[in-house]
Every structure is written in C-alpha cells, then in structure tokens.
Amino acid sequence: MPSTEIRPRQTLLNEMAGRHVAFREIIERFGMLLDRQAEAREELHVVNPAKCAYEEERFLGGEPLVAFVNPEEFGPALRQSASKLWPFLGLVFPPLHEALGTIGKRLDEDGDWLNLCLRAIVHGDEEALTQAAALAHVSPDFLFMALQTAYGPCITAHKEALLSLAPAELWRKPHCPVCGSAPDLATLECHSGQTDFLISKGGELWHHCSACSHHWRFVRLECPGCGNQDHKTLVRFSLPDSPREHIYACEKCRHYLPCLDLMESSDKVDLDLTALGLVHLDAVAQSKGYAPLSPAPWTALGLATPEAKAS
C-alpha cells in the first residue's frame, strides 16, 4: 500500500545518508540547514501582494512575480532570516564563520548595502551583487550563496500570496514563475486525467525551484539552460542500481539537472529534500564535465570523483 503522507524529514535524511555513505557529511550538514530554513520561514512576516505592480502580459512573457515587487519590501524579512541562518551556517561550516559574521553585521547596520543585496538576490542584478561584494570584501559567489540561504525562506513565505496574483498554471518557462530561480530537480509524473499518449511517452516533466520550492510544469525535450531542442544533443544517464534516478544533460551548453521518475510511484515525496538525496548524481555529472544548472550550494563543492560511473 503506497504511503499517503511524507515521512518525517529526519527519517528521510538518515536513509539518504545510509544509502550514500560517501556523501553522508554533505547530506547531514545541508539537511540541518534545510531544517533551519524551514523554521525561519515560519517566523517571517509576509509582504502584502496588493503593493505589487503586477502586469499579466509581462508575467506570461517570462518575468517572474518578484519582478513586480520593490526589493526593499523584503528588507525586514531578509535581515530576520539572515540573523537566524548565517550564524548557524557558520557553525555547520566553520571556514565560513568569520566572513558570515562580517556580512551579517553589515546587513544590520548599513541600509544602503542591504538594498544592494536585495536588488542582487530579488531581481538578479549582477552589477549590484558585484558592488555589494566589493564593499564587503568578499567574493560575489560567496555573497550570493549567503544571500540565497537567507532569501529562500523569505520568498517561500511569500509564495502563496504572490501566486494569487497570476495564472501560474500557464507558465512553461525553465525558471521559476515566483522568484525566477533555476530548478534544482526535475520529476517525471503521471497526473490524473492524462491521455494514454502522454503516459506512453513518459508522462509530464515538472521542475522544482531551488529557492522557493515551487513546483511547475515544463516542456519535454528542451534544455532549461539554453533552450536546445535537438534530441541528438540532449542526453540522459543513470546509475545501474537506480533506474528511476536520472541526469538530464545538454551537450550544447554542458549543463545538467537531476531527475526523479515518479511515474510508477504513488508515495508522497518531499521534493525539498529530493535534490539533496541525488547528490551522488551531481558527482557523476560533474565527473563527466557538466556544470550544474541549479545554484543549490552542495552542487558547488567539487563533487566530481574518478570513481563516479553511470550507464
């Protein structure tokens, strides 16, 4: 009998760590971080979506919902989230402790710097990110990782309010309709009402957002990184003992995305944990020279190993 409820998160993390011993430390550390992010999300105040200057034509043209929000609206939530998460991140990853303390103090005391960070993380302003990193004497990559860690709970807390503004079920873009982030996971799913044709072709492809955890449908046979639709340069591979776990990769842009096949599964799945549980596939893909599409922090840890093999 398939499960109708998602099992406790710690149970799932323990099973992941036991299954992938080589990646136990990564799964345990980032699992703790995901738990702390969930706690932070529950404590945040939600911005009133009535303040958004939403335009449906722009949204359907590909602009995510945060494009219609003044980034400064997220200032109090980002400060609150960072105050909870950055000290914890410094404890879990001691080499980051000093730098996180420095930027945490600046976030509290320097409103102009906070606004630069908000422009960078909410609206994807690369110039603002570069400028903020230079002022704080840290690398842009480090600052983006830290900001993303704190921003994830903020945008997730606002997700339902933002989605109430738009016909998000019509969205077929590769990036998230809520926050514009890249997916960290694809899933193959069979929903009730699908035609026999769709089922025979492998069902629907869905994306899971790396930042706000939104779940949206995407088209099959298209690279979410570059839009390539040439099936000859779109590849899929998996490990011999895990036929339902795949890597989708593009030979044109050399990006990859993990995928979990749920076509024959009726169990509820915690998608927020699934990408972390596929970290072994990240290792395989990186060993083949592909770069992660997702900005999830564990994908940037140099996971490629000479022992990683796939079919």
From TrEMBL:
Gene3D superfamilies: FdhE-like domain. InterPro entries: FdhE-like_sf, Formate_DH_accessory. SUPFAM superfamilies: FdhE-like (SSF144020). Signal peptide: none annotated. This is FdhE protein. It comes from Desulfomicrobium macestii.
